[in-house]
Every structure is written in structure tokens, then in C-alpha cells.
Amino acid sequence: MQINDALILTDERLYIFKAAAHQINGGVAIIDDAGRVWFWNKWLEEKSGLSCEAVTGKPFLQLFPEINNSRLALSIDEALKRGHSSLLSQSLNKAPLPLYDAAASLPGNRLEQAIHVTPLECHSRYCLVQINDVSIAVKKERLLREQADSLRGLAYLDALTGIPNRRRMDEYLGDEFKRAIRGSTPLSVIMLDIDYFKQYNDTYNHSAGDFCLQRVANAIKAVLRRPADMVARYGGEEFSVILPDTPTHAAVALAEDIRKQIESLDILHEASDVTRHITVSIGVAGVLPDSKISAEELLGQADLALYQAKNKGRNRVSIYKEPSAVA
Amino acid sequence: MTLHDLSELQRDALIEIFNIGVGQAAGSMSQIVGEAITLSVPIIELLHGNNQADAIGAVVRSPRICAVSQTFTGGINSKAFLIFPEGKTREIVRRMIGESVSAEELSDMEQEALSEIGNIILNSCFSSMSDLLHADFQSSLPTYHLGLVSDVMTVQKTQDDNLLLLLHIDFSMPNDQIHGYLVFLLTLPSFNALIERIDQFLSGIHAN
Q: What ipTM does the predicted assembly reach?
């Protein structure tokens, strides 16, 4: 009689555990040591469209042949043979099982899944496969990443001219410089300064100065033809242009085009000592793959060339030359 | 305190076993990422005493680390860690999932991806030990940690008979090399069991 009571109690406990497993808000599958489905909870019934009755006793790999040789199949094997536990992240395993949102009126995309595979030790070994739907978390992270990207984009733009700012330029130059060295390709840098801009501001006021900066920025942009070429506002009335895969002589030709383009804007500047309209002075420096300089030094060389252009009378292009080459 | 150390042969055997393990892990990782990844374990060190956390910090050269740990029980009991200096973690995750990680800290999804990488490597190491040393291990699910070495490792300071195997692990990918570490915390009895099994393994080789 007592034994019977104990059995009844055990049955009840078993029933409760089974009911709880069915109610869990996530997939719970138990696989026996021969790789057959031993338990399949309600959540999985709903998301897979396969009932517990239909899958019980069937080999898991036969039910989902697409997972053959996948990390999920190997993990189940490792759990059953060795007793190892495995985590299958959503990022590294794109939706391994054909599970779908049961509430959706149309069959949509597979649920994004995070899967845990753990051994269950009994007289023989079983394997517990837990599946979590992480679709919402994935969507949330994607949104956050997009927002961060757009915020970062704003932080990298010059508010007045809408072109990249110095911070962005520094990063871009750093990346392109490394790429040039690695790939043994040339890289050129242009530094550009509006002649007598202080006097322009003093004569025509600051809003005219702002408008002038915008027109100069657009004029430089119009001359650049390749998507990899970047013009940035370096600060004040100074602009810089990064030209990947461009040897110095080609950069000089481009700089001359920029100088002419800005002169042809014909922005009246009566206080200029050069002519009666806005002009620019330009310095060009290029790096050869085998040179030993850094990105900062390259920028410094372009700046030196810019000073030379100014000293020689402005409204012109100067090229940086190695001191030894001059001697 | 008794000084425990490894003989040249035992050291070579361990390096061999771990290289087989990480080699299998590299195969799995390459399959996931779709590009060739090679993993190798060039150096193994045995650390003991109370200042293990300091010793790890000195080797990793970063006070803060990012780690994935798993507990292994069976023939030999051990808590195992895959460790990266904090700054390197983003590189490996970016490389594996191919998306830009903009935040300073890894997101939940990225932490989980890193946990899986650790899981693949640690399980493979123990599989290799099972096969060659004929010892069975059961493993727990991986746990992600970020923080000071001493907080992450939680070495019990009162027990000075804890030993620690530290392995350097090199991740080689096209155009990239990342350096990480594997650490196995062993109690003295587990360490002795490991040595015994290695000696059996070695005598097995010499018998042939």
C-alpha cells in the first residue's frame, strides 16, 4: 500500500515536471542516447508545426536533415558521446532550425535562435536542447547599431559645410595610409587655405564668410571624381584632401584643377592682395610605399608645401620636396 | 611548499595535446566564419602560489581581461578559461561576426558570440585530452566575464595548492594575428592525476 502511494506521488511529480516543461516559454527538446527525440515541448510544437507525438522516437537528424554536419548536430553528438555542453549563439549560427512565429498570418522569416545543448546524466545519457527566440533582441541591437552609426556620422561632419571634419579626416588618413603601405600603392594629401580670409570676413561680415566657405567646399567636392577621394574641413579656412591610389603628379594636376575651379567662382574679395576675388594656396605631398614617414609627417609635409605656396605669392600650388632632393 | 613542475617530455606532450585540440577548434571556427583560421599553442607555463592573478596579469599585460570560462568534471577537475586582454576582444568578435562593434563594451549578442568561441576552443581541448589521455570530462555551459584578473579568476587565496596551467594561443587569420591565453585551474590532486595520465600516455608512446 505504501509502495503504491509512493508510485502515485512519483507519477504526480513526473506529471508536474512534464507540464512545466510544456509551459516553458522557449524550446525544450530531450534527445536520447541513440539521437532520437524523447521529449518535445509545446513551444516547439507551435514554432515547428510538428507535434510531440509525431516526433517522439524519431531520429532528430532525420526530422531536420538540413542540420547534418552543422554545429548543432556536432554539439548534440558531443553532449551524448562526451558529456560536453555547447552554446550556439545567434550571431555565429544563423537560425539553425526551421522555427517560425506561430502567430504570424503569413509564414515569415525563421526565428533568430540562441541554443544551449547540455548532457543529462541518467543510467544512459540524454541531451537537453534549449532554444530561445532572440528575434526581438536582435532587432533591438540592429536598431541601436544603426542609431550609433548615424550619430557617429554626425559627429564626423563639419556642421557648416557638411563635409567630413578633421576628426574624420585623421581617421581616414590613418586607415588609407596603412592600406597604402600594406598594398604598396601611392597616397597623396592636399592642404588648402583661402587667401586673406580674415580680411574677407572683416570686409563682408561673418555670414558672407560662412557662405564663402560653403562654396569653396562644394567647389573642391565638384573637382574630386572618385568615391575614395575625401575633402575635409581641417579647421578655420583650411581644407585637406586625401587621395588614395594617387601618385604626386596626378595630385598636383588635381590641385591645379581645384585652384582654377575656386578662382572661377569669382567671389568678390576687394581686400585681397592677390586679385579682386577669392583665391586659394595649395600644398601637395605624396607618399611612396617604401618611404619611412608616418601619416602625421605626410600631413606636415603638405602643410610645409602650403606655406611655400603662400610665401611665393599665393594663388598657386606647391609640391613638397625632400630636403636632400633640393640640395 | 613543494615545487611542482613539468619535465620537458610532459611539457611537449601537453603542448601536442592542446595543439590537436585547438586545431580541431580552428576547423569548426573556419567553417562558421567561412575563412581560414589557424590556432596554435606555442608555449605552456605552470604557475603556482598565491599570486596567480598577478602572474596572469603580468603575462596578459592588461589588468582587465575578457574571459570565457567552463567547468570540467570527471577524470580531472578543472575550471578552464579563454582569456583576451580587454582591448583585443572587439577585434576577435568583429572578425568572427563581421559587423562593426561601435560601443566600448560588447553587446549581449557579441558577448554570446565570444562565449561560443571560447566554448568551441575549450571543449575541443578537453576532447583531445579525453582521446589521448583516456579520461572523460563533462563540461558546463560557458560563462562570459569582464573585469580585473583577480575578480575574473576568483582563485581561492586560502588554498595554496591550486595550480594553474597557462597556455598562449595564437589566432591566425588572413591579414591578422590575435594573441590570447588559455588557463586551466587545477587542484593539486587533479594536477597529479593529469601528470599520471600524461606519463601513461608517454610510456604508451615509448612502448610502441
A: 0.88
Spell out the residues 6+ positions from residue B200 whose beta carbon is closer than 8 angstroms to its own: B133, B134
Q: How far apart are CA B54 and CA B65, in angstroms?
A: 12
Task: Tell me the per-residue pLDDT of B144-183, one tens digit each, with 9 for 90 and over.
Answer: 999 988 888 875 554 557 788 999 999 888 777 889 999 9
B66 within 8 A of B183, measured Cβ to Cβ: no
pLDDT value at residue A326: 47
Q: Pick from B17, B208, B139: which is nearest to A78 by CA? A: B139
How far apart (Å, rounded) are the C-alpha atoms in residues A193 and A306?
A: 8
Contacts of A77 in chain B (CB under 8 A): none
**Residue A86: per-residue pLDDT:** 97
> How confident is the model over B111-149, as pLDDT tens digits?
999 999 999 999 999 999 999 998 888 999 999 999 988
Residue B168 phi/psi, 5-degree rounding, is: -85, 140
CATH C-level class of A2-139: alpha beta
Instruction: Give chain B positions within 8 Å (CB) of A85.
Output: 70, 119, 123, 138-142
Tell me the domains of chain B and their CATH numbers.
8-207 (3.40.1550.10)
Question: What is d(CA B156, CA B149) in angstroms, rounded to the nearest whole number?
Answer: 13
Write out the catalytic residue numbers of A: 237
